[in-house]
Write a structure and sequence with these properties.
Helix content: under 10%
Radius of gyration: 19 Å
Strand content: 35-45%
Strand order of the largest sheet: 3-28-27-26-25
Largest sheet: 5 strands, antiparallel
Distance between the termini: 42 Å
Shape: globular
Amino acid sequence: MKKLCLVFGVLFLVTTGVRMAETQTLYIPTPIDKPVIRLDPALDSIISTNAKVEVVKRGFGFTEGTVWVQHGKEGYLLFTDIPANVINKMTPDGKVSVFLDRAGYVGPITGVEMESVGSINDNHKDRGEPGRRGPDPLYRQFVNIGADGLAVDLEGRVIVCTYAGRSMIRIEKDGKRTLLADRYEGKRFNGTNDVVVKKDGAIYFTDSYGGLRYGAKDPLKEVDNPAVFMIKDGRLTRVVDDMPSVNGLAFSPDEKYLYVNTGGSGNSIRRYEVQPDGTVKNGQLFFDLRKDPDKSFGYTDGMRVDSKGNVYPTGPGGIWIISPEGKHIGSIRIPEKTSNLTFGDADFKTLYAAGMTSIYKIRVLIPGIPCHSCSAPQ
């Protein structure tokens, strides 16, 4: 069933598992001939400079939350499509099905509710300005009513940042939803964004303003500031509160460090020392993407770490590769603004990138870190 809603001049589709390609002209970005940018010889052991970015599937609204699940011979990619409000499941052959419908906002779909649910985004095409020739015919706006970051816990259950739903939930093996948290000290989250799971089962997630129409100035804002929270042994703790904005998360391979990036407001990454009880301290600037003269569009959003400790944040132009020592050693150009990434396939040497309307992939030489409940093919 499909419903068309007009909210503040923004036309979007509320549907069950439909992709944006069914409702708009398919946007096909220009391929990049040489996507791997080598800035340091250390890159040679990480990715071949001849590696190619391949399109796996096109036609989505705003892809996010990529995570690879490998259970023996069965492996698949999960990712969110935020305006479609679904979590999709994609098998290695590129077949896509709906893993979870209404993954973010689950309330009524009426003009009243939809005036305040979720932030408004666009596809970064030219919308036109007074005195100019007009907008790009492919320009689109949409409302972020869906979920965002995803992770897999120690039992193979999917953890979801509901984003517009302003909560953290867990999808049980039978498909039922369990609410993990939606408030801190009685105040409702503003837009849960990204999530990682530690080896001991602790869940870390960021809360930003993404679930609110007017961001930090929204009258529905409750939690005072963006922060990183931890759910451990049924207890919710705020572990990072010294950043003006928070977005992507990743652990170092030994889990001694937690990386947190700022998103678009600061375009930088901080690194914290993880304590025995799971809290963190001694936050330090790890890398500032603004210090490198890359004027391409993009910013820190999703982030991953490979098995050697190299950090892969999204950034201007696509994906940046930063050594454990904090040196920018190379980049991977993606044809669209990149929001998230994950390592996948059975050997975890394929880097999957969520590029707004498409899912891309590229082969690398160093594997990523599998989810803690994942198992390699026998």
